[in-house]
Every structure is written in C-alpha cells, then in structure tokens.
Amino acid sequence: MKKEFNPNNFYQRRSLASVLGQMNKRLWELQPDLQGKHVFVPGNLEDEMALLYATIDVDKEKYGESIYQVQETYRDKINSILDITNPFRKVASEAVALVLWNTPEAFRVNTKDGIELNSGNLSAIYFNGRKIPAYPDFMNLISSFLQIEYIRTTGGADVIVGGESAGIPYGTWFAKDTFMPNGYVRKKPKGYGTTDQIEGTVGPGDDVKLIEDLITDGGSKLTFIKGIRNEGGTIEDVFVVIDRQQGGKETLEKVDVNLHSLTTMEDILNVGLEYEYINDGELKSIKEYLNDPKAWHEARTERPWNPPKK
Asked: Which of 58, 125, 126, 237 is the most buried (most CB within 10 A)?
C-alpha cells in the first residue's frame, strides 16, 4: 500500500530534484564546455535575463561578483542550443507529471467503477487542478516551466489571463512571476453590474495569453477566446499544464490559436507506471477509456452517455 504523500518530506520530494538534475546532465552532453555549470530553474524568470542559468563554479576574477554577468555570458550559448533542440522539454514534462501524481487528490484513477464527471459520464481518470495551488513549491516549478515555454515560443504579451475557474490561480501565479498585468475571463458575461466577461485590463489590440490548467477537446477554450476577441484583444497562444490529447490542439488550430502544454496524458501515464502509481492493468483500462469514453462508460453503468458539450 502506497504511503500517504507528505510534501514536506525530503525523501518524497527528491524525485522532483532528481528529474531537474537530469537537465544538467543533458546540457553537459550537448555542450561539454559548460561542465560544472549547473542549470537551474528559478521561481522568477524575467524577460531580459537568461532563459536558463549557468551560475555555479564561477570564475570570480573574470566575472566579478555580479551573477548577472555570468547569466549574460551563457545566455546566447544556452539559447542557441534551445533553438536547435529543446533537451529539457521531455524532462520538464516528466517533472510536471510527478507534481500531479505527488499532489494529494490532484490526479485520481478508478478503472473499476469509474469517476462521475459533471456531465454524468464515467471516467477512468480525473484531474483536479485546484489542488496544486495549495503547494507553493509545486506552483513555482510549474510557473518556471510555463515561463520557459512562454519565452521560447512567444517572448512577449500585454496581458495574462486565466480561465474561470481552475485556470485563475495559474494565470495569477504566472503573471506575478513575470510582472505582467493580469485578469481572468469568465465562461459567460456576468449578469449584473458592468456585465463584463473579462475582469482585468484587456483593451483593443492587447496581445493576450490565456493560461489554463488543462485542455480536453478545446470547447471551453473557444468560449474564452471569443470573449477576449470581443473585447478587442488578440490571442494567438494558449498555455496549459496538461494536454489530455483528445482533440484540443486541433480545435484551437481552427481559430488560429497555438497550444503550448507542459505535459501530456501520455507522459503522465508513463510516469505513473514508472513510479507505481498505477499498474499495467490500470494503464490498459485508462487507454481504453481514452480511445472510446462512451464504450468505457456504458460497460460500467446503465446510465445513458451524454455527449460532451462543444
């Protein structure tokens, strides 16, 4: 029986540290002259600083005491590596997957009876993104990876918004770390007062980035995108923690929006199997659910299947 997770227990948290440590090994393989320079991901990544930092074992006679000089020295070299290939993408995905499995009640599995969703349908898995903000260390890690993806793929914005409601803490945390204006977009305009759909400062011509906890088929994201564009904002990018790989990317492409995700359902399940959060039988059942949710539901209940709302 798996022991209850304690986020303050070093032994249980060190798996995350070891995953991050793989970033150093991979960097050294690609760039041997950076041996001994340790890459780390801070909780606050400003646009003008290096994407990733090599700061350990500094030659102080050459660089002086200023850490910023060292960051500047290695920024171009590290960015040139990332322009060719992103060796950290897979490692980051696995680190975020570990966060999900290590956060109590964030990622639930029930392949026997299923988990009832808001639609009434049964699911083999359930992700509750509202659980992770209770653990600041985990949110800092997620925010750091979001910042890397943001700078690599877009490099700028005017406003950061989260989607009602699970996306709000992620958007707020990211905006705080990047010193960006922040707001959130509702599922529909509120029916009183100003009747706004967006809270915050989104005006005509503003470049808006939407931050969300996950994406499934992308239907809810279309509502948020429409709300942003109705306010005169432009939106070409959506960032999510999890891509469930159930058509969301393709849905966004139809409205000229790019999807950027930190991890995927495939990586979550592979990490879950590796760290024994699930077994082979559960993995097989989860894949059956993902391939045909309707058949999986109907095999476990007489309740009719409700087609997901687009």
From this structure: 125
